[in-house]
Amino acid sequence: MTTATEARSGKGHRDENFPVASHLIHPRHRGPILDFYYFVRAGDDVADNAGLSPERKIALLDGLADALTGRGPDDPEAAPLRRSLAERGLPPRHALELLDAFRMDAHKSRYDNWDELAHYCRYSAVPVGRFVLDVHGEDPGRTWTTSDAICTALQVINHLQDCGKDYRSVDRVYLPRETLEKHGARIEDLGAERATPGLRAVIAELAQRCLDLLDEGRPLPDLIDDTRLSMEIAAIHRLAVLLARGLLVRDPLSEKVHHGKAAFALTALGAAATTLARRPFRRHLHPALRGARP
Q: What pTM, to 2 d.p., does this model score?
């Protein structure tokens, strides 16, 4: 395998657990976000390819980075994003940080504690939110902190939903060792058809951490200047809260914890509509917005 394209899984933005550049996003912003997504998807597929050695994964990821920055040959997975960044005058920083996360995945399959997992999320999830905010020209000082909290929660929720599949398919475990030991659970429990009581307790504790992070990120939609992006973030936030609450009581090894299409749409639209209704009052709700552009 000589290119990242050969490692592609075929997964696209409509296959993700949360909306990616939905039609709530203005058309002028959807293109760069989708270019970013498919570049990142290519890197993620490299990291998850069980047929590649860690060294080969790193080489392919380095090739993607060099193609994006112009230090190496062009790559079809990098070219669209490179054009979008040039058109917007944006640096490649966020995309390169995600490649750093995939390099971690190539060599690291276990996490000792929450801090290690949060560090991974800083590179595997946080840059996504920051890139979307940058594309929309939002104020980093006002929005990054709450965005970071939401993105970290989204990543951990995905890890919890897929904890059995990740263990069985790529021998990767994102549940911290300390939390497993605290509840008397073992890594091998992830290979069972049903979660043990100890593993259920681990999942519930991490789901509660996600709810705490989502509470930190709750103000973000009202801090966003772009109305359509505000609605998109509100929808994602609401979907994440419901998933995290579900993980408090449900077993992802034996039960479906993903949203069905109808529930997904109704929940997202309800959250977006509520946020839209709040827009005229947002400056009264958040002192940080006083003096911000209308």
A: 0.87
